[in-house]
Amino acid sequence: MPLAMLSFDKDVTAAAKPFASKIEAAQKKAADPKTKKDGEKELAKLQAEQSKAVAKALSDNMALVKKASTELSLFLETQLTQAVGFLKAGQDAAKKGQILVVEGCPGTIETILDIAKKAADEYGRAWFSYRTGNSPKEVIGSDFTSFTSVRTEVMNEGKIQAGKVDKIKSLVAQAQELLKTAKQNASQDGPDDAPDQALKAKAAADAAAKTAGEYVGKTATSITSISGMMNHADMKKSADKLVKLGESSYTNAKAFANEVKTAITTAEKTLSATKGRLKDVKTPKVVSDLKAAEQAITTAKADLTKIMANVNNAAKALTQLQDKAKSMSKK
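Predicted structure:
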């Protein structure tokens, strides 16, 4: 809750008022030689009571100031943490080339700064008269000690609070510089989704390479499978069945090869289109991903060569199996 506006002089006057008429009367008694002794004693007692009453009123209000100071410190720490978080998000976005995110960073932190400054200014104005108030004549020196002790503590807290506001202000400057640099790099970084485009091209190439690598082994297995059928113990009795199995194995090998060809074609088209859109981009991550995509396609093509050799060998093995089956059927 915001601290209500305080008035040091008015609060002193209000706390001293109940004693004013009594002190005035005691002063008159003290001035009269006949009642001087009793008057002075009564006056001293009243002034001591007034001093403690005024000091208590001031200390009670100073306790409210201390509570408000603690709340303000926590609030400013929260604002500073948020500002740091937004700057970090802007820095991360800048690394990814997400210029639109970076553009919102300075304004967001400026808003946080405005909120923090407003809270600090309102608090400062509310207790300014207490900050500058001197020991009033109504208060005996020793009674003012508690008040001044808390006030000094609060004033020291104020220096830390001002430092937090200044820190947020410095974050605004950092965000503005970040945006300036991001804009300067925009032409080299390309569109906001340049990293995503490069990553998709790399993913397509990696998928083609992975598929090709797996199918080298599968097509090699087709050769082994067909060759094994020629030496099957029941070749004569199961010739037709074995031929059909061989043909199925060969068909699968061709299908594997076609799947790899399609994957490579898709990867090449994706990479070509992406490189065309991002030809001027110099961002290291984008360049690295596109280079990796090229390498993956090269690897996939090398494996496709092996696959095609396996398919051709499977075809030869199938022909041998078919010939052997025919010769056995004539016997």
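Summary: The chain has a mean pLDDT of 89.
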